[in-house]
Design a protein that fits this description.
The chain contains 7 helices and 10 strands. It has 218 residues and is of the alpha/beta class. It has a single domain, classed as 3-Layer(aba) Sandwich (Rossmann fold), CATH 3.40.50. Strand 5, helix 3 and strand 6 form a beta-alpha-beta unit. The termini are far apart. The radius of gyration is 18 Å and the shape is globular.
Length: 218
């Protein structure tokens, strides 16, 4: 679920303006999974724009205060959730740690960097949710460390049905600050895309593994 529609629209507007979100329904991007995608999303770009990153940080804080009031520590998912998580932890006066995508290959071979203790109430910060697979590996790592994961807050989600099922299966509450639907509304109203592109973009979200780009008539 999104935090609220007003902030979802504002964040979508900002991400499009700074080109953290790029849309190209006719010449798609290719994901590591091999999927063709009409959208490329890199929310780390928001860190380069103080007004945008400050607004996002405050919405994270609002989400945690509203949905997870008993939070004792903030944990970021590497790499996109690290900087945002640290900003949130600083704003809330809470400890911070982060979860690697894999164990360090030397030294202590840590998967979790920082001190998180047994039974602590943790909220996980993520920048982007696609299928949820990598994000939920971080949740699994924290649970193996005997932490109490209250839930996850992310900047943006594509809203895939697979992601929703994965979070439900793993009993992890997910709050997002903005989503694909909000972004599409902004993109049309602000002329980032045309009305004719909407159906193709909606089709991609429903069947991302089967989608192919549209060819515009000359």
């Amino acid at each position: 679920m999104i935090l609220n529609q007003e902030s979802a629209i504002k964040i979508a507007e900002s991400l499009l303006q700074i080109k953290a979100i790029k849309l190209n329904p006719t010449t798609p991007f290719q994901w590591a999974s091999g999927w063709n995608s009409p959208i490329y999303c890199d929310n780390r770009k928001s860190l380069s724009y103080p007004p945008v990153r400050t607004f996002i940080r405050q919405q994270f804080v609002n989400a945690i205060n509203e949905h997870f009031p008993n939070t004792e520590i903030i944990a970021g998912v590497a790499t996109g959730g690290i900087a945002h998580g640290a900003l949130v932890a600083e704003a809330m006066g809470l400890p911070f740690a982060y979860i690697r995508s894999s164990t360090k290959g030397h030294g202590m071979q840590n998967l979790i960097e920082g001190d998180i203790f047994k039974n602590q109430n943790v909220v996980v910060i993520e920048d982007l949710i696609s299928t949820g697979g990598s994000s939920l590996k971080a949740v699994e790592a924290l649970r193996k460390n005997e932490c109490n994961v209250l839930g996850m807050v992310a900047i943006f989600t594509y809203g895939f049905e697979l992601a929703e099922k994965n979070f439900q299966k793993n009993r992890c509450k997910l709050i997002t600050l903005s989503d694909y639907h909000s972004m599409l509304n902004v993109a049309v109203q602000s002329d980032y895309i045309s009305e004719s592109d909407i159906e193709s973009l909606k089709e991609w979200r429903q069947h991302p593994n089967k989608w192919s780009p549209t060819t515009k008539k000359q």
